[in-house]
Amino acid sequence: MSIVDDTSKIKLGISSCLLGQPVRYDGGHKRDAYIIGTLGAYFTFIPFCPEVAIGLPVPRPTIRLVQQGEAIRVVGTKDPALDVTELLHRFGKETAERLTSISGYILKRGSPSCGMERVKVYDEQGRTIGKAAGAFAHSLKKKLPLLPMEEEGRLGDARLRENFIMRVFVYHRWQQQLLAAGLGVARLQQFHADHKYLVMAHNQAAYKRMGRMVAEATVDNIKVLSCLYMEELMTALARPASRRQHVNVLQHILGYLKNQLDSADKAEMVEVISQYGDGLLPLIVPITLLKHHFRRHPHDYIERQLYLTPHPQELMLHNLI
């Protein structure tokens, strides 16, 4: 099952400054070489700068999150009379309603508008009292809770980077195979089967719950049930899988070769999985060896498993986890 062929169609929303656009408060940018140079080969970026979009100039006075009573406001750092809270929230909602074709969003860390989380919140005396999401990001997430989102700073973590991009590809497949192609019981069953081991690597209990949903799917309930299914799926995938969880899935997949491998190949495969579990090898090693054996001993069900190829190999996301 090829996924590389579809990557040119995948669209990601992104904070404009990360693409090198000079839209920041000081007239500068935060061009990210990894996003542009590596991810840019696989994704089409749709840039937004909420602060410019709502009418703030470049350069402009800085803004920050301030706790005022029970509410968090977005106000000027030096001029609290500058309050753009409602404008940013409204633009977040409007953007979410327009971006029906995107499969993920990369946000600027620490921004009072775009920060996904951990943005500093101040009291009215200027003291840091907590952290929250930026106003635009908060509204975007509220309207699109299942859309994969990540901050550019967190993409430096190999596990978080792989997890985000994997979720983008899963979300994109859902858009293509279920939404664009038309909801149907058979399509949902096939989608579920293809993602079995990918989901199991993250949450086995969720996979069982999703299996029960699929078993109960009918023409009459498919629309409601598919929404519940997708919520369960994206929630399960949001937490990166542990080595122990990966080992369990690798062992399950190895079971499909129990009658095909000789004792030496089987012992080698078991040892490689064990070494991965002990942190001595990256995930790419057991996966590559399994794929080698399945090329020699094809299995239709395993051929369709997205766990073995959740994203293009050229991104090398399994090489560091």
Please outline the helices and strands.
Blueprint: E1 11-15, H1 33-37, E2 44-48, H2 50-53, E3 63-68, E4 71-76, H3 85-98, E5 104-107, E6 119-122, E7 128-132, H4 135-143, E8 149-151, H5 158-180, H6 185-194, H7 196-200, H8 204-215, H9 222-237, H10 243-254, H11 263-277, H12 284-296, H13 300-303
Parallel strand pairs: 1-2, 1-5, 3-6, 5-8
Antiparallel strand pairs: 3-4, 6-7
Helix pairs in contact: 3-4, 6-8, 8-9, 10-11, 11-12
Structure, explained:
This protein has 321 residues and is an alpha/beta fold. It has three domains: 4-57 and 86-118 and 132-156; 158-237; 243-320, no CATH class. Helix content is 44%, strand content 12%. It contains 13 helices and eight strands. The chain has helices at 33-37, 50-53, 85-98, 135-143, 158-180, 185-194, 196-200, 204-215, 222-237, 243-254, 263-277, 284-296, 300-303, and strands at 11-15, 44-48, 63-68, 71-76, 104-107, 119-122, 128-132, 149-151. The strands form two sheets. It has a four-stranded parallel sheet. A hairpin with a 2-residue loop joins strand 3 (63-68) and strand 4 (71-76). Residues 1-7 have low confidence and may be disordered.
The strand line-up of the biggest sheet is: 2-1-5-8
Count, helices: 13
In terms of structural class, how would the helical and strand content be classed? alpha/beta
Strand tally: 8
Could you state the order of secondary-structure elements as H and E? EHEHEEHEEEHEHHHHHHHHH
Global shape: elongated
| Portion in helices | 40-55%
Tell me the strand percentage band. Answer: 5-15%
Q: Which spans have pLDDT < 50 for at least 5 consecutive residues?
A: 1-7
* Structural domain tally: 3
Mean pLDDT: 96
Q: Report the span from N to C terminus.
A: 23 Å
Describe the sheet with the most strands: 4 strands, parallel
Radius of gyration: 22 Å
